[in-house]
Design brief:
Largest sheet: none
Number of helices: 2
Shape: rod-shaped
Order of helices and strands: HH
Structural class: mainly alpha
Length: 121
Amino acid sequence: MATSCVWYVRSPASAAAATVAVTNATVAATAATVTATAATVAATIAATATAVTVVTTVAAAAAVAATAAIAATAAVAATAATIAATAALCEFALAKQTSFQSSGSLVLRWAEELSMIPSTP
């Protein structure tokens, strides 16, 4: 023989009222559980969004740092190339100046050879 709380109730109306009260309490507890679960889900979503934001921010900062490093390297390489080109141009100009000075006037010699001007004394 199973015993239950209904065994001690004196009337069927009291038993029905007790069942309704227990059902109402169960519904209220279920609603509270659903609300708590919804709050937990919302907190989890917020935490996940925060984690994604942190990861995205860190990745963006790393990309900015990498871009800055690449730009700095390119600037250094461009500066070095400019210095090298300037040095080469200076050496070329100096070599040409020396060549003109050592051969007298190369332009005049070319002009004489092409018979554009009479020979110079």
